[in-house]
Amino acid sequence: MSKLRLDIITIFPEYLEPLRHALLGKAIEQGILSVGIHNLRDWATGNHKSVDAPPLGGGPGMVMKPEVWGPALDDVAAGRAGYDLESAAPHRNDKARHDDVAKIAPRPYEAAEADRSRPLLLVPTPAGAPFTQADARAWSREEHIVIACGRYEGIDQRVFEDAGNRYRVREVSIGDYVLIGGEVAALVIAEAVTRLVPGVLGNTESHEEDSFSDGLLEGPAYTTPRVWRGIAAPEVLTSGDHGKIERWRREQSLLRTKMVRPELFESAELSPEDLFALNARDIELTLDTRADNKAVRRAFRAAGVEVAGIERTAEGHVRVVGRTDTGQGELQVVVEKLEAR
User: Fold this and answer.
1) Does 219 lie in the same domain as 199?
2) What is the mean pLDDT of each successive set of 10 residues along the chain, which is 341 residues long?
3) pTM > 0.90: yes or no
4) 61: domain range?
5) Is 306 a residue of the active site?
6) Total count of domains within the chain
């Protein structure tokens, strides 16, 4: 079983209490995850245990001192335990989990780096590279991650230059905004990474189908009852046709991504069916033709129309309902040919 050691250095240890709860707490209880919290002031000197000083060259705010951070990172790299978190409450471990019942073997993600002999040091900062789901997947293979939570105007840059002798250093940003300190970012990164460690989630597929796992956003989810406050869940989800359900979910993922995060398509791999779902429009056509319904269906399918239904009206016309990404001119040609019969 994979095991992850997570050490977090901060001046506010109590900020990391949420790591004791829910699935992360259970992972601690099961021995999959261990979390050590280190109070940076343990390495500070003087009566006030100061960890910061004015910036060289002047300017607003304070910068965290290298003579405090350096020894802290040295000791953690050397194995300092710190204060180990325990699960907030006992969890039930007597119920078989999905993967155990289905006999699904762990499917760990591929590591980003072959040489992981040194710990991975993560530094949350607005100036860092964006933290992505791909990072979370790769870092779920790590054995030891250390997170350095900065405050004020950040940590003296020399700390990370020096830390490169003992760590693999990565400066990361969880978004284009500024927080008061790195603790909230540490919680985000810790949860995103830990949930992907084999054994933390009982069902491997639950994270393999997450948003961003295939480069796109996840579509909407529904549960019982089928109708709630007059709003019905999509009929396809109760059809029992798993092929149609999977296709519907894929299309909803595509459409949500198109609406909310269209830039994700730049790096996503899209099939011809995906492109059709993105570009198709609903159509409803009425034809005056003697052709039977099968012939009408064949003609429109050949023209790239996904036909949902065909019916004869009281006047003897044919109504076709469906969707297509075919141009209006091409559709008109089909209509004219059918009406000429």
Assistant:
1) no
2) 90 96 92 96 91 91 95 96 89 58 58 82 95 93 96 93 96 94 97 91 56 74 91 94 94 94 91 95 94 94 95 92 95 93 82
3) no
4) 4-208
5) no
6) 3
